[in-house]
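Contributing new records

If you add data, match the layout below exactly. Sequence lines come first and carry their own label; structure lines follow with theirs. Keep one chain per record. Anything else will be rejected by the validation script.
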Amino acid sequence: MKTKDSNRKWMWWFLGVVLAMQLYFVRELLAVFALFVLGFGAIAFALGALYMLHQGWAVAVESLASSQHPAVLSVKRGVNSMEALGRRSALATIGAAEDVAKRAVRAGSATAR
């Protein structure tokens, strides 16, 4: 009778340990799941904030572009004149480069004769 009680005691200890390990494993899984939820929530919040900043910026630029305020019109004229100046200087640079290339070709063909 004594050995039967001893075996039963070890059986209960074993079942208790198995149950405790299962509870610990479930607790670990829930903790990891909570961490993943927090991580993905932070990523979603950051993406949402960036999207809202982008949309706000787009609305601000659109309203600024359609503004008829004298300061905005002055800035627009300045930007347009700088753009035209840049185009003219770029075309002049390209034209000068073409002239240099043509002279080099002519000089090369003259020395080859």
